[in-house]
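Data card: per-record layout.
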Amino acid sequence: MEITKVKMKQDHKTKIEYDLHPDFKPAKFFHTFMNPFIIKIINSVNSFMINKVKSNKEITIQNRKLMSKDGGFFNIKVIKPISKEKKMPCIIHFHGGGFMYKAYPLVLRHSIVYAKNIKCAVIMVDYRLSPKYPFPKGFEDCYKAFEWASSQPEFDSDRIVLSGESAGGALAAAVAQKARDIHGPKVCYQMLIYPVTDDSLNTKSMKTYLKAPIWTVNNNKIMWNRYLRHGDYNMKSYAAPLKAKSFKNLPSAYIEVAEFDCLRDEGIRYGQLLKEAGVDTEIRIVKGAMHGYDGFAYSKITKEQMQYRIKLLRSKLWKDKIGIS
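The structure for this 325-residue chain is written out next.
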């Protein structure tokens, strides 16, 4: 696959300005805070705003609490469209945020859009976060949520999709790997949006986009130091999915990456390894975009990507049962 050539403008102070699509120009003013105190405040605000969203005539939103492998508890949010379907297909979504941030309200908004337009349930997993709960705590929460959903009569266990953006993409890929490794429940499909897959930080994009908007290489280093501060417990591939010994017999995948993102090449490489292992995989590079472009909901590009994902997932979950528009 040919990677788009880097387009940069450089001034006399060696400050790099990426050739972002006009929709994303404001991104250069955005910064991802890594201070734990600030993250705690942001997480509290996000939780408050998300919990204000209630069920309506089109969808139901239920909050449930699950017990993880170590006996700790975590929450999930189940979004379902009003439907007469007895067994509904299901997307289990793991949000991004460097394994440190809770889901932003926009993640819930997107989940509702998916539920309404795909005619499926969406489970948002509020997994435990680092640095208080480093690997493998959050990952174990995510796998437990997947096991739980697969056992519930309200969901069709043959039509379960694992989805995640950024760090959530790492969690989705890792859950798929563990399900394969231990012969766990079936995964129908995996959708990984600008995913984290590698803790090596040695790809070309990692060396090129040091200070790209939203997510920098320094952010990435801090993220891994906090997430793996107690080590990987000999489960490195469940933390960094690119480290898997084999990519065979994993579920088919859609991988979407941003052109100007330090994580770009590790997402592409993960998709290439899936393809080489015989896994049906689509890799899509979003031109002119940076990490976290989903947060710019007004953008034409973001809207187009949402529509593309909806059409794709409808085709995977419903096949010929409903029309694809």
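Known properties of this structure: The chain has one domain: 8-318. Residues 1-15 have pLDDT under 50 and may be disordered.

See the next section for split statistics.
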